[in-house]
Write a structure and sequence with these properties.
Length: about 350
Amino acid sequence: MRLGVLTRLVAAGLALAATPAGAVAGGAEPVRLEFVKMGGIPVRVSAWDVAPANAEGLGGACDARLDELEGKLSAHRTDSLVARISRGELRTVEDPDLAAVLGKAATVARRTGGAFDVTVAPLVDLWRKARIDGAAPNAEAIDAARSRVGYRLLGVDGLDVGRLADAGGALDLGGIAKGYMADAVLAVLRDRGVRRAIVEIGGDTAMYNETGGAAFRVGIRHPLRRDRLLGVIEVNGGAVVTSGNYERGFEIAGRRHGHVIDPRSGVPTPQDLLSVTVAAADGSEADAWATGLFVLGAEEGSRLAAGLGIEALFVVPGPDECLRILGTSGIIGRLQLHEGRTAEPAASSP
Ligand code: ADP
Ligand code: MG
């Protein structure tokens, strides 16, 4: 049976496609839902094999879960858990979502030697102000912010927010929250009996497939051309996330800076790495690793990824304005590149 007409409601930052009562998504036609969250980030959902009884209210359930998570994890919402922790108002983490995100963040922080670090907030703030002022911060200002940054401030399990507050620290989950939210939407769909689904949040894609049907083909954005894909990667489940500076970089005094900051040096990552794509078991892991490997750069990042069995693809500038694409073995095997491009094996583990 084919899916009935999709009704698209676009209102006040929310775009929600609702299925009419009794609609069924069979093999080919998915139920599609669309939302806009976190001040403008699109969330797109496709769900296959939706039983009639479950189709109704599916959009509302996803929407409510996304709002709930935004209210917990967003640094921009003054009433969020993250904002309250950053103001020193909460000394323990009671919330299961925040605990899960911080636990995952702690693992990636440790494994990347602090290249991925959700306590990077004071440095993000510093560079945000620099962007507004049009002048880079001086060394003293960078050192002062750096003294309030460090994943170890959160303790071994990553949950010691009281200690973080005592050190004048703050949280920024921008490098992991979208991936976690994609996982959470998939969990809502799974709970409602959906057997195959894909969720994309601002370029982070997570999916599962319990039907035994065809694998998903996830596009990998060209790091320099917005309207082009570099290629596609085939995956049956898990997540594919790309970190790059192309979207939200900025310029100070003629020099381009990325929105990802190296917490170890306190300065934005250099522009010699264009993007990192990670395929992992879930969205939060893929998101955190993509950001962490982006900070480490192609050489160190690919060595670490290969050593730990993280599937990653690094795009760096090549000769004559060409791109060089370096990937770990597992990802190269599932990759189809466009325009006659080829991927080279990334550095193998030491
Ligand atoms: P995007 O949001 O563009 O998909 P990322 O997932 O790589 O990119 O996350 C970048 C965001 O993560 C930044 O905007 C900032 O909020 C935060 N961030 C910046 N540097 C780091 C870092 N070294 N570790 C963890 N999070 C970071
Ligand atoms: Mg990330």
